[in-house]
Each structure stands twice: as structure tokens, then as C-alpha cells.
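Thread: "does anyone have the structure for this chain?"

Original post by V.I.:
We have the sequence but no experimental structure in hand. Need at least a predicted one for the grant figures.
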Amino acid sequence: ILGHSERRAYFGEDDELLAKKVKTAIEKGLKVIFCFGEELEDRKSDNHFAVVESQLKNALFDLDASAWSKIVLAYEPVWAIGTGRTATPEQAQEVMAGIRAYQAGFDASLAEQLKLLYGGSMNASNAAELLAQPDIDGGLVGGASLKTDDFYAICQSAG
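Reply from O.Q.:
Generated one for you, C-alpha cells below.
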């Protein structure tokens, strides 16, 4: 997992460093879950698309098309991680569809193949609605994965 907000915040991992880490991981045969997401201020000022597009462009868009088969994207709005707050299914879908559209501007076939996860306080009570969205392919589950019954319910929601 690369690009998680806590690594960005506490260890100063910026897009340039993450680009190097992603490239190295893929060269070494690893698969990457790449996390991205906006702060609450970015969401409130309607700047969230610019933030996530910048994170993806700066860290990933110089990769060869073949590398994308080894990358899973995980949208984790920073304001929702571990806070109990979750993006609404509509907010999450809006960002996921925006990412596909942004990628389609560079490579339409690649955009369709993107694997997109939602993270950010996914839990047993909201998983079904989130996972029902057309551009959400799965979840990156944090705290709820530590509670057996909750995690089982999330897995059941995935079908």
C-alpha cells in the first residue's frame, strides 16, 4: 500500500517520492494499492477533483500502460479515514467516475480496466450502498476489518 494519507502526512511522502516507490515496486514484481484522497478543506472548497487528479498524475501517469495491470487505486478521502465519517455513495461515485474519465482522456481502454477501491470508514452499515456504485470495484477496509462480524457483513455486501 503506497500513498496512504498517514504516510503522506507523518513521513512527508510527496508525489515525487511516491512515483519512485511505485516504479520500484512494479520493477521488483510487486502489485501496488495506491491511495489518494483529499482533505476536508479541499472537499468544502470544491477542489477535491484537482487534488486527486494531481496526486494520480504526478505519481502514476508516467508509467507504461502495462504497469497499470499491477496497480489498484484506492480513493480514501482523508476526512473520512478513521473518523466514522464516510463519503456518501454519490460523493464516492462522483470521484471514481471522475478518475475513469480523467484516465480516459489519456487512454480510454485503460480507463475501463482500472481497479478502483473505496476506503475511508467503509463499514457493515454502508458497504452495500458504496459497493453498489458502478465505478466502485471494492473496498479498502480499515478498522471494520478488525471486527469479525462487521468484516463478514462487508464481504457479504460485495456479493
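V.I.: this helps a lot. The mean pLDDT is 93.
O.Q.: and The two ends are 24 Å apart (CA to CA).
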